[in-house]
Amino acid sequence: MHAKEKAMKSEKLKGNFSRPSWATIVLIVTLITIFSLEITKKSVLSPKRVGFSGADGAIFDPDSCAAGLLGDQYLPERKVAMSIKDFGGVGDGTTSNTEAFRKAVRYMQGFGDKGGAQLNVPEGLWLTGSFNLTSNFTLFLERGAVMLGSQ
User: Fold this and answer.
1) Within a domain: 67
2) 55 phi/psi in degrees, rounded to 5
3) What sign has the CA pseudo-torsion 27, 32, 33, 38?
4) What is the pTM of this model?
5) In sequence order, what are the residues at sequence separation of 6 or more whose Cβ sits closer than 8 angstroms to the Cβ of residue 87?
6) Number of domain units in the chain
7) What is the pLDDT of residues 17-45, one digit of tens each?
8) Is 98 helix (H, G, I), strand (E, B) or coil?
9) DSSP structure class, residue 79
């Protein structure tokens, strides 16, 4: 009887599995295709031009961070716009700009209830430690601006 019980258990296990439906197979193939395109960074759709104005009214392409995050929305227009250079910032990649960013945010925080403020970071390598952002404030990195974090 022992061999017969094993055979019955084996039959029960086989009976629990069924062949996948065509819909399941199509779904799996579609997901694999989508993930393989994402991995190879091929674009299935043409990039959508996102029209919004940044500093000085320039139109930026959809490769920018803001375009990816905001989609078709516009960046808020701030009443006050200043450069990090106005606060002593140096974009050489070796000078620490932590105090310049902190000073700029502290100063521009005063414009929060007056339409907000925008701090423009021009092209360059901007080494900085941590600093806190504030409400009604836009930190705008111009093309070629890279922020480097220090410890």
Assistant:
1) no
2) -65, 140
3) positive
4) 0.54
5) 100, 101, 103, 104, 107
6) 1
7) 567 788 888 888 888 887 776 655 544 44
8) helix
9) S
